[in-house]
Amino acid sequence: MFVLQVVIVLLLIVAAVVALVLQVRHDSTQEARNRSLAVAETFANSPGIVQALASPDPTAVLQPKAEATRKAAHVDFVVVTDTDGIRYTHPKPDRIGKKFVGDIAPALAGQSVVEEVDGTIGRLVQAVVPVEGPGGRVVGLVSAGITTKHVGGTADRQMPLLLGAAAAALALSIGGTALVSRRLLRQTHGLGPGEMTRMYEHHDAVLHTVREGVIIVGGDGRLLLANDEAHRLLDLPDDAERRHVLDLGLDAETAELLSSGRVATDEVHLVGDRLIAINQRPTGLAGGPPGSVATLRDSTELRALSGKADAARERLDMLYAAGVGIGTSLDVTRTAEELVELAVPRFADFATVDLFDAVLDGDEPEPGSVLRRTAVTGVREGAPLYAVGEQIRFVETSPQARGMAQGRPVLEARLAESPGWRAQDLERTEQVVDFGIHSLIAVPVRAGALVLGVVTFWRSERPDPFDREEVALAEELVTRAAVTIDNARRYTREHGMAVTLQRSLLPRTLPEQNALDIAYRYLPAQAGVGGDWFDVLPLSGARVALVVGDVVGHGLHAAATMGRLRTAVHNFSALDLAPEELLGLLDELVARIDQDETADGTTAPVSGATCLYAIYDPVSRRCTVARAGHPPPALVRPDGRVEYPEVPAGLPLGLGGLPFETAELELDEGSRLVLYTDGLVEDRERDIDAGLALLSGALERGADASPEETCRVVLDELLPPRPNDDIALIVARTRALGPDRVAEWDVPMDPAAVGEVRAAVVRQLARWELEELSFSTELILSELVTNAIRYGGAPVRVRLLRDRALICEVSDGSSTSPHLRYAAMTDEGGRGLFLVAQLAERWGTRYTPTGKIIWAEQPLS
């Protein structure tokens, strides 16, 4: 508050000073305009001025008169000029004969003008008046003016007085505020406003939330304060505060004790139907204000609570038994049976569990579907309840349906008087009532936001119906069981997913691309799905990656490892890595998998995992291949020759230690690249050399066949009758992207070259009949080429590829990687790549031995 008051006073002072300065400056400026005009008109109309202008030396006649007039009129200058604006007079003689500074056109037209200009003596207000000769002809001009530094003198004279008064007002306000603040701090024992507010809030919260009544009585016997518990225990009226204790309607002994202020310790008084224990102490013993404070405790409720301790202990035992006895197996049905076996007869006489069919299958239930009776048990046989396995659709008015809809338990204390429950099945419900079942609790089985079913507890042997406390116990029991039922459901689902995993890890279809004509086969071993895998991955620049791998072993572990490696290759290939770099990362991944699984101790490490990775570029017709312990690829030339290129083998994945090497193959269009796993060429009856010879012969016999026919011929020749290992086979026939679909330009390291590149690109798109992409392509190339010139290094090249998409590539000699970012409103750059990302369907960066390439793809349709 002190700071706020000082700020307000300072703001008022500043506002007053500003207003004074503005007003005085306005008045002074207006006065200067009037005085300048009056002096100029007077001098222009003075006797002899016309004759002086016509004399041979006007300066000799007019300069003394002008200076005398200037001093007498208290202006800064009086200047007389001819009609061309050449000065005859000036306060500074060296300015005589020079051009007048100002607008003389209105004065030459016979009008007087007042203006503010930057003159030879500074910023000034001046008036220009014509001197008229015989016949009204203008023979000269007179100008008088005052510089602006002389304007506002009144403000300068009044400012000290104003500032002095403001300082005095500020000092008085600060002093007064300081005195008031000091007195308030003394009265509040040094506590500030925030501390006082927090202390009051804490005291008020504690006072009204404690489980004991608190009463404060003043020295005159009037009630000063009573908390909520005191109001409840003594049944005080709402307006009890400020009234005398004897007038509150209390019994005589209690009213006498509270009004007397004497010391009391655990005095028990009967107040209504409650036994209240009262403790009272006077407040004036330690120098405090006169009066007393008393605390009240309801001993009746304490006795009632102690009487319920045995029942609470029994329920805790039941909950403990539920924690250790429900969910011993990951089976939904068995978990439901354990729940009803625990509840009967300790809690209920009959118990039933109804779950959605989807839950039994491990899936999430759908709203509105039917339930199936999963478990039922009771204290005696023959109860007319739905049997296990029956499908049930509860009507909306039934307690089970209401409980599932509301997500909370529903109590039906008297079934005979419940039309909503009886509407489920009039005949069956009548039999239930006749059987002696008279009360139920329906509790939904909830797992988070999912409702899995409903549990119903029935009572028949005990005459009393279920009460609210038993509803809470039933809800706790079902809540604990719901966790294990949901876990069992999830296990069922995960088990089914694991079975499906073995059938779904391999690609169903191949991606669309123009670089290779591909056919493939995958044949699992008789023992089940193993770890062989393959993939075809389109890359940037119309390139395609072929990958084939093998994880030794069979079963879920091999299939899961295969899926992890295939996913890793997908991710690594998105980085446009060279084959040897990708295999290096894959090798590190397998090593980490081995470390984790070795530390876990539950699964065996990956051993014998191999991989071959090849990248084919249809523009250069080059194929780069690297392998990690995998059999070499077979190459069928267009003339039918079969060869096994020398590709460095490398160690299997996970062993590490040595870098992987690559081989670069130049493939003529129509060549066939054959990738396979060792199950094709090696088994128990033949070694790998014999298998490779058989493969070579099969490929030579199918030299003119299509990839599909080649796959059939190879498998007919090499597939054993009972394969004991998985077989993966890929046959890829190469295609080339001809020169008519490729355009390239060298770009000088000059920003002016961007326009030439754009024009060349537009012409090329017109030749390809892709004019509709000209605008977006120009923008993309402008940003990429500009960035390459500005941040990259020479040489800079632009390449356009027309494939399934229009591919724009900009290469430079720098390896600096660009990053997409969101520029702020005040940033001058940073929007180029964001614009490229918006215009292109895909974009990215790939590195080359001499630099990098930024590419962007636009769909052609």
UniProtKB/TrEMBL annotation:
It is found in: Cell membrane. It comes from the Bacteria. Residues 331-495 form the GAF domain. GO terms for cellular component: plasma membrane. Keywords: ATP-binding, Cell membrane, Hydrolase, Kinase, Membrane, Nucleotide-binding, Phosphoprotein, Transferase, Transmembrane, Transmembrane helix, Two-component regulatory system. It is a multi-pass membrane protein. Transmembrane segments: none annotated. Residues 513-734 form the PPM-type phosphatase domain. It holds the Pfam family GAF_2. Its main location: membrane. GO terms for molecular function: ATP binding; kinase activity; phosphatase activity. One of its GO terms (biological process) is phosphorelay signal transduction system. PANTHER family: STAGE II SPORULATION PROTEIN E, STAGE II SPORULATION PROTEIN E-RELATED. This is Histidine kinase. The lineage of its organism: Bacteria, Bacillati, Actinomycetota, Actinomycetes, Kitasatosporales.
